[in-house]
Amino acid sequence: MYLAERGINAYIPDENTAISDKGRKAKDYQKEKLRYNAEGDYFECEHGKITFRYKTYDKSKGREVWIYRGENCKACPIRKECVKNRSGVKVVKCFLPRR
Is the pLDDT of residue 56 over 60? Predict the structure, then answer.
């Protein structure tokens, strides 16, 4: 309401835009490029790699989170663009709503 009353259009950039606006290199392969299958409760990438999940607690965010980990990432042809951690496996975090 505050912005609308003053005729100001708000803009909230996506993660890649925010990163590049700060002069840093944007991530090559984000969660948004994955397809989510609600019936099977997994993510699938364009190369067909299905992920599995487990529930944990993220201390830095102070909330529960589902962690989805890739199953066949080490053999994937785009692993270097997609995976940025030392394990060589894609990790997707989905935070649960606060109670």
Answer: yes
Q: Are 90 and 82 in contact (CB under 8 A)?
A: yes
Place of tokens 């053999």: 75
Q: Could you report the per-residue pLDDT of 4-39, keeping only the tens digit for each?
A: 888 888 777 666 666 667 776 655 566 777 888 888
Q: Are strands 51-58 and 63-70 parallel, antiparallel or unpaired?
A: antiparallel
C-beta of residue 42 within 8 angstroms of C-beta of residue 68: yes
- The identity of residue 43, as a single letter, is F
CA–CA distance from 80 to each of 15, 37, 74, 91, 97 (Å)?
Answer: 19, 24, 9, 14, 32
48 and 77 in contact (C-beta within 8 Å)?
no
Q: Calculate the alpha carbon distances from 74 to 6, 17, 54, 83, 88 in Å.
A: 52, 28, 20, 9, 6
